[in-house]
Protein 1
Amino acid sequence: MTTILQNIPANSVLSKWALIWLAVVAALVALLTILTVSVSDNPSISQDLRVMKWIVDWDLPGLTTYFNLVSAVTHTTAGIVYCVLGVTFLILLGKTRPAIAFLAVGLSIAVVALAADHSLGVIVDRGRPLDPSHLAFPSGHTYGTTVFFTFIGFSAVYYRMKPKILIPMVGIFALLIVSVGLGRIHLQAHFPSDVAGGYLLAAISLLIIIPALLWIRSTGWMASRKLDENLGIVACESCMVASSIASVVVLDPVEGTATKVYTPPPLVRILYWIAFQATFPYESNTAALASGKYRCQIASLLTAHRFGKDLVAPVKTIDCSHGNCSFVTEFIPGELAQNDEPAQKFMGQVSELFAEAGLSVWQVNPRNPHAHTNLIRNVDGDYIIIDLESAVVSLFPAPGQFMSSVKSGNLPIFDDIDFPRLKNYIDTNEAALLNTIETKGVAALRHATEHAEESIDVWKAAEPRIISHLISRTYRLLNFKARFQHIMGALTGADAAAELFLNNGIDRWEKQGRINHAEATGLRTRLSSGAAKYATRHLGAHLVLSVAIAVPIPGIRSAARFLWTFSFWLRMQIRRLLRRNSADADGMANIHTPLVMLLSLLPGLGGVAYLDRTRCVANCWPA
C-alpha cells in the first residue's frame, strides 16, 4: 500500500482563493461580533426566548433521552478520551507527525473554548437558563463538537476514504453536530443564541485550522522521516520517495528500481508478535523475503496465463547488507491507480485467480480500501501489481482456503500460500497453462512453487507460532471423522499386520533355537488354516487399534480394544441364545472371551490379548 510523499509539487495558492477565504472569515467574524453585541445589550431577546420555548416544548418519545446521550458523548471528558485514543493509535501506526497534528487540533479546541469563556462570555455576562451562575455564551459543547467531528470528516474526505464507509460516517457526524445544538436548547442548558455563537466560532476555527494544516503538509513537515532515519536507503536527486504502513520505498527511474526497506510501526510489530511470537519477518528474515520473491514469480506467471501478459513487477534482488533487508523490484513508470471501477474490476479478477490458485489476496482485494495503492497504471493503460507483501496479520484467508489454513497451521494468515491447492491448480490446468505460458512457463511455475514452499517452511520453522500450532493440533484432535476414516482404513490391513507379527515371532524363535525348522514350518502351516486366519484378523485389529489411535487421551486405545472384543462376544452370545451354538456362523470357536476383554484393557499388552491360552491356543497359535 504505497502513497507518494515527496517530489510531488504542491498546488500554489491562488490569490482569488485567498481573497474568498478572507471574505468568508471576515463575514463570520462580523456575524459573531454582531451576535455578541446584541446579546450583551439585551440578554433576553424575544426571538431567542420564542425559539427556545418552541424547542423545549418538543414532546417526542425518547427525545430527551437521546439529547442527554448526545450531550454525554460530546462532553469535554469524552473529547479528551477521543483525542488520547486517536493520538495513541496514530503513534502505534508510526504516524508521529499526524499524531502531533491531531493533538494540536484537540488542544486548539480547548484553548479557543477557554478563551471564549473568558472573553465573549465575560462580555455578554449571561447565565444559563437553569444555572445562572455559569456563563452561557457561546456554547462550548456546540463549538467543540462541530470543530472535532468536522475536522475528522474533512480528513476522511481528503484522504479519499472508501464511499461506503465515508458516507455513513459523515452522516453520523453531521447528525451529531446538529443534535448537539438542538439538545443543549431542549435540555435548557443554553439559549439558541449561545448555540449560534458556538457554531459561528467553530466555523471560524475550522477556516483557520484546516488551511494551516494543509499548508504545513505541503511544506513536507508532515512527510515521513523514515528515509532520513534509515542509513540503508540512499536516495538520489531524481528519486521519489514513497511510504506505506510498514515500509519506505525509494523509486529510482534512472536505475529502474524500486527499493523497499521495511520499518514497521509499533502497532504492526505488536500484532505480528502476538500472532507468531516473533519479530516482523521482512526486516531480517531472508527466508521470508525469498518466499516473497518466489510468490511474485508465481503471481507473474498466473497473470500471464490469465491476462496474456505479465502484470506483476519482477523482483530484482534482496539485499541484507545494511542491517535491515531491502526488497528491490523493477520500477514501473506510470501513475498510481485510482479506486475507480476499472481498478476494482481488475482487482476482482486477480483476487478470483489468486484464491483459486491458493495465493493470499488481501493486497489485491477490492474490499481492501487501500488495495488500489498497490497498483500502477502504465502508459499502455495496464494495471501492474507493485506490492504483494502484507503488513498486517489477518484471521481471514482467501475464499475456499479456510479449512486448508487450519489444517496446515497457517492461521492467523500472513502472506501464506495454500500449496496443496496451488499444486492441484497446476496439475488440473496444465493443458491450459501449456497453451498460454508454454512448457518453459509451466516449468518455471513448478520451480517457483517448490522453492516458495521450502522458503516458507524455513521462515516458519524459525518462529514459535504457538497460536497457529494450537489451532492446527486442536483441529486434528477434534476431527473425529478423519480419525475414524483413518482407523477404518488401517483396519483393512489388519490381517497382514497380524501375519507379519506372528511370522516375525516364528522366525525369531527359530533363530534363537527355541524351535527347529520342522516345527517352524508346521507353525506357518497352522497359521494358514481357517481358524487361525479368523483369529489373525482380530489379533491384527487389536494391533492396528493400538497404533492407529493417536488421540492423547489416557485409556482410549484400551477402551477401543475392549469394545472391539466385547461387540463380537456380545454377538456370539446372542447367536448362542438364538441358535444354541457357541461358535460363530462359520463354525469357528468363540475366541472373544472375558479374559481377552480384560487383557485388552492393559496398556502395552492389550494389543496381543488374543494370544491368551484359551481353546484357540490348541487350534490357532503355537503351543
Note: The longest strand covers residues 247-252.
Protein 2
Amino acid sequence: MEGINPDLIGITADEYSDFMAVNTANILDISGYRLYTQLSNLGTTGTDAALAEDAVDNDLLIGGVMPFRDMGNIGAILWRNKDVRENAIGFWDPNTVDAGTGFVDLVTIGQNGEWESTDIDDSGLDRTIEKQSGEAYDNRGDISITALAGLGSLLPVGELGLRLGYSKNVTNDISREYSSSYEDEGDANNYATAKFSSEEQDYTSVLMIAPSIRGLSLMGADLGATVELAMVKQVANTERDATYTEGDTFVGGVGVSDDYARKFKAENTEELTGMRMGLSVDGSYPLNDSVNIKGLVGFRTGKLTGDNSVSSTDEVTKDDGNDAAVEKVSFNQDISKEEKQTNIRILAGIDKQVSDNLLLGIGLGLSREALETVEDEGREVLDTDGTKSYTGIGAAGGLGTSVDETTVKSVATVITLPIGLEWTANSWLKARLGASYAITYRKEETETVTITYEDDSKDAGVDDKTTTTTTNNPLPTRPANDAVNFYAGVGFLVTENLTVDVTNMAVGNILLMNNWRLSATLKF
C-alpha cells in the first residue's frame, strides 16, 4: 500500500493493511500461512557511513499469520523504526545560566571531534585549547508489538477480531557529554576548565485493546466496527550537570580577580497519564461488477493529566584570598497540566478495475483534531539563608514576579485528495504510483490568567498579589499550508510462494536508495 498510496488504506484492498489498519477481523480472509518482513536503507553500508551522512532512518518489520485450529487465524507483528542523528556539542557559559528555568545555555562549537579557536570570549586575548572532548547523539524511533486474532464462527451474525498492542514513540533521546580546559598564552594562572553532561528523553507509550466485528449488512452495504481502549503515558525528562572553575586573573569570567568555581544541576520532568477510547466503522457497497464504494468513519477522544516539575541548584564559590564565600540558590517549580484531545476522521472513495491490468483507487478524506491544554504554574525559590520567595530569582533568572494559568485551544482540519494506480505489467511484475493533495486549516485561541506578586513577596499572601486575565484574539480559520505527497513502488512475484515489494521510492530523489523499503512476503 505504501507504493500505491497509504492515504487509500480502507479504499484500495491490501491484505496486510486491511487487518492492521482497518478491521482486525479481516485477518480471516487469509488462507494458509504468511510471513511478513520489511527492511530499509538499501544503500547504507555500515553504521559509520550512515552517521557520516548526518542521519540514518531504519525500518524493521517481521511477523506472520497462521490458522488457529478450526476457529480462525492468529498473528503477531513486530515493527521497529530507529532514527539516529548527530547533535551539535556545546560548552557551558556560567554567565548565561538561567537557574529559574533549569536549563543550561549551550554555545554550539560543531560536531564530534577536536576544535580549536582563539579569542573565544571576545576578550582580545588568545586562548589555547589544551584538551577538549565530547559526543552527542539523538536516537529517535518507534516500536510496536501487536497480537491479532480472528474468530469466524462464534456469533450467529458477523465475525470477530481482537487486537492487543503495545507501542512506544521516542521523539528525543539525546545524550551529550563535553569537557575542556584552556588558558591564556604565557599565563598559567589564567585558565578555565568546564564539564557538562545532559540526558534528555521524550516518549509516549500506549497499551491498547481493540475488539472488532465485520460482516454486518445494512441496505446492501457490508459493515464492520472497531472499539479501541488504551492507556497512555507521556514522559519528557531532562537532566543536566555542569561544573566550571577559573583562575584568579581570567578576563571575561565572573570571578575576574577571584578563584571561582560553580556547580549547576537541573532536572525537568513531565509525566502525563490517562485513557483514550475510540470507535470506527468501515463499510463497502458494490456499485457494479468493477466498482466498489468504500468508506471509514472514526472517532477518538482522550484525556491526560499530570505534572511538570522543574528543580535546580546553583552553587557559586569565590575565594579572594581571605575567606571563601558560597552562594547557593535552589529553585523548584511545579506545573499541573491537563490535555484533552478529540479526533474525527472520514474517508470515502472508490476502488475500480479500469481494465484487466489497471486498478484505480481514488478518495476524499476529512480529519479534524481538537486539542485543549491547561497549564497551572507555581514556583518557589530558596536562597542561601533559607528564606523562601515566590517572586522568582530576579532579573538574572529572567522569571520576573508572575505565574500563569494558561489554556490553549487549537483545531486542525485537513482535507485530503488521494489517488493511486496499480499497473500489472506481466505475470510477475506490478508497478504502483500515487499522490495525495492535502489542505490544512488551523485555528487557535489562548487564555492566560496571570498572578503577579510584589517584588519583596516572601509568602503567598492575598495582599501581595494581583490577578489579570488575558484572552488573545482568536486566530481565524485559515489555510496553514497545502502539500502534495508522491508514492511509488514495484512488486515482484518471485515464485508462487514469495512476493517482493520495493516501496517509498518517490521520497526525494528516486535514485537515493537510502529511502527505499524492501518487503518480502512468504505464502505457504
Note: The first strand starts at residue 34 and ends at 40.
Protein 3
Amino acid sequence: MKKFLIILLTLFILALAAGAIYLSYRYLDEDMYKDRFKEIVKEYTGRDLKIKGDFDIDLGWSPTVTFEDVTLSNAPWSKQKQMLRAKKVSLKLKLHSLMERDITTEKVLIEDAQILLQANKKNQKNWVPQPKKSDADKALKNLPNIELRNVTIDYQDVATNKKSQWQFKKLDIDPTSNKNLIKINLEGKYQTLPIQASIQIDRATSHKDIMNLKGKIGNTQVIASGSLEKPLQLNISLSGTDPTLFRHWLGFKLPPKSKFTLDTTVTTKNHQYKLSPLKMVVNKSELSGTLLIGMHRKTPGYSGKLNLKAKDAGQFFKDFNINDYFKGGSIRLNTQFNVRGDTTKELLQTANGQANLAILNTSYSGKGSSDMAKLLAKGQANDSLPINCAISHFNISNGVATLPALVFDAPGATVFGHGTINLATTQVDLKLEPKAKGPKLVSLAVPVQVTGSLENPSVSAKLPTKNIFAAIIGIASGAGVVGLIGAELATSIGNHPAANPCIKALQQVPVDSAQ
C-alpha cells in the first residue's frame, strides 16, 4: 500500500509539473522560450539559432518542440553564413530530463532543408561543434532518432573546391532501445545516382563498430560488412548490369549496359585505402590484383598491380569504347603503375610504371589498303586481317609509354618494332620492320614509321632498310621471352596455340643478327 501511495504521489507531482509548464507556456511570453532554446543550442553547439517562423510546444509525456523557418549559423571560418536552413525542425524531448534540467532529445525531425557541410585547409569540419559545454562521447551514446525528409546536403572541400551532393527523400537513423545497435534506412540520390540502403551498425562487439550494409546504388546491388574502427576493414561486394556508378570515382567511361561484379576488401592506413584482393568481372573480362588510393594530398593518387584477362578481345574494345575493329580473340595484360589526378587526362599524363600486353588469335577490320596491310594479309585484300598474336612490353614515364620491343604476327609476316605512345594525347611514333613469310611477299616487306594518333595513324615508308629493329632483337635474345614479357604472361601465351608464332619469333632470332 505504501508503494502504491508513493507511485500516486509521484504521478501527481509530474502532472503538476506538466501543468505548470503548459500554463506558463500558454500565458507567458513566447519569446522567452525561443530565447531559452537558442541558449541551449548555443551551449551545446556553439552556433546561433534563428527562428523566423512559428514556435510551438506540444506538452505531454514526450514534449515536442517545433520550429519553422529556421537557420543555424556556420563555423566562424566559413564564408557561408548559414550551415542549415529548414522550413521545419521538431524535437521530441524526454520529460524526466526537463525535471533534471539536463535536456535529452528522443527524436529529431528535419523537413525541407538545405545543409552545407564544409572542411577547410586546416581539416576543420563545420559539422563538428565547438561548444562552450559539450561531451561528444555522451552525445553519441545518447544519439536520438533522426529523421530527414526532403533534405539536400551539399559537401564542399574549401581547400580544393571539390563538391558533392546528397539528396534525401528519406533518411532514418534509429539507435533503437538497444544502445549498441544503430539502424539506418535511406532513400535518395548521390549526385544523379538513385540510392536505397539499409544499414546496421553494431557497437557491442569487442568495442568496435561492426557494420552490415545492404543497398542499391543506381542498378548496382551493394553488400558490405566489417569493422568501422581504425584501421577500417570492410568486405565489399557489388553486382549489377549498369556500372555507371564507377564513373564518379574512376573518371572514365565504362560500358553502359554490362553484367558486372566486384569483390574486394578495403583497409585504411594513413589516409590510404587499400583494395586487396580486388576482383572485377565485366562481361567476359576479368580484372584482378591490388589497388592503393591515397587521399592525403589535394589530388588523389592511385597505384597498384593489376592483371587483365579478356576472353573476347573484340567485345572488350567495344565495351570500353576503344574501337570496334577487333573481332574475337583474347587479351592478357599485367601492369604495375602509379598515377595521380581527378580526370582521365590527368591520370594518363602522370602515369608511371610498366606493362606487358598480349592480344591473341583475333582479327582486325581497320587495316586499310597499304602495302603493310597487304603483306600481313598474305597478299590478300580481305576485309578482315587475321592476327595470330601481338605482344609488347611498355615502360611508362610521365604519361609516355616506351615500347622497347613489339612483336606482331600475321599470316603473311612477322613484324618487329619499337617506339613511343603518348597515353594522354594518343600520339604515336613507332618504327616497324616486317619479315615476310614467303618469297612472293618480300617486295612488300618494307620498313615503315607510324606517326600521328592511334585513331588516325600515318604510315611512312621512307626508313632505311638496315636493322631498325636491332635494339629489339638485343633485348629479346638477351633477356629471353620471360624477361621480356614476364613469367605469368609468357606461360599463358605459350599455352595458347595461336601465340606460338610470337614466342618462336622471339626465341629463334640469333643474337648476332642484332649486331
Note: The longest strand covers residues 105-119.
